[in-house]
């Protein structure tokens, strides 16, 4: 019998995207995920569906997504079994229930950070204003898992400015937090968990139960890289944030001592896509 094959796969902008991001003719798109009100929010193009079919040749696909449980259940592709959701804060077992061992491990870490996240949310609302922004804390399995900021008209530059003016100064004393900014999607993620930590936990269990598998990691964002690095092969969509960072040799490094942020070649005004993560994360 050959080695087991596992594919750890990010969802949004890897297997499907919002209509705005598709340059394709609409007729080739297929609905891929719904809003809470039932409207279609994401679509797959033929290339994304072909990638899914290739990944489905693995013994198991394990989604690794920022979506919380409710948003994950609105994805129209039906995955069997394990899933990493909420940026790694929650793991769903084969039967769709929350992994209690992982939940117990991360719960105290998240509860400890809830007040910090609430204060940051209030800071953003006060400093940046909310007329054109939507910001909220994402909860999952009754835990506060991360903070999200989006611009109502999808202006990524405005989101990047909030990161520069409010989030980065706040992170000056909280360098163990992770900041994910990819276009109109910004997430401030507390320390102690993450996609990579959750994938490492699943890999450890897989090795103990079935031996060492062959693994593929697929994702589009810089914050996907750490879980992809745990896999034997890494896949990233061409043109994605991660592919662009690899292409241009950008290095994203937080220099907290003088409050400076090194952002590679692009001047901040042109940059709408970056991430900060704790050293060695
Ligand atoms: Mg993604």
Characterization of the model:
- The protein is of the alpha+beta class and 281 residues long.
- The chain has 2 domains: 5-100 and 193-242, 3-Layer(aba) Sandwich (Rossmann fold); 107-192 and 249-276.
- Helices cover 31% and strands 26% of the residues.
- The chain is built from 7 helices and 16 strands.
- It has helices spanning 46-55, 69-73, 100-127, 156-171, 195-210, 225-228, 241-248; strands at 5-9, 17-18, 30-34, 40-44, 60-63, 83-85, 90-92, 133-140, 143-151, 178-182, 185-189, 214-218, 233-235, 253-255, 260-262, 273-276.
- The strands form 5 sheets. The chain has a 5-stranded antiparallel β-sheet with strand order 8-9-11-10-16, with helices on one face. A 4-stranded parallel β-sheet has the order 5-1-12-13, with no helix packed on it. A 3-stranded antiparallel β-sheet has the order 2-4-3.
- β6 and β7 (90-92) form a beta hairpin.
- It is globular and about 60 Å long.
- The two termini are 35 Å apart.
- The model is unreliable at 250-272 (pLDDT under 50).
- Magnesium ion binds at residues 10, 12-14, 219-221.
Main features:
alpha+beta, 281 residues, 7 helices, 5-stranded antiparallel β-sheet, binds magnesium ion, Rossmann fold, 16 strands
Assembly annotation: single chain
- Per CATH, which architecture of the largest domain? 3-Layer(aba) Sandwich
Provide the list of bound ligands, each named once: magnesium ion
Helix coverage percent: 25-40%
Strand order of the largest sheet: 8-9-11-10-16
- The CA-CA distance between the termini, in Å, is 35 Å
pLDDT < 50 stretches:
250-272
Overall mean pLDDT stands at 86
Beta strand %: 25-35%
Main pleated-sheet profile: 5 strands, antiparallel
Total E-strand runs: 16
Task: Report the C-alpha radius of gyration, rounded.
Answer: 18 Å
Structure class: alpha+beta
CATH class call of the largest domain: Alpha Beta
Please, what is the CATH homologous superfamily of the largest domain?
HAD superfamily/HAD-like
CATH level-3 fold name of the largest domain: Rossmann fold
Question: What's the number of domains?
Answer: 2
The helix tally amounts to: 7
Q: What is the molecular shape?
A: globular
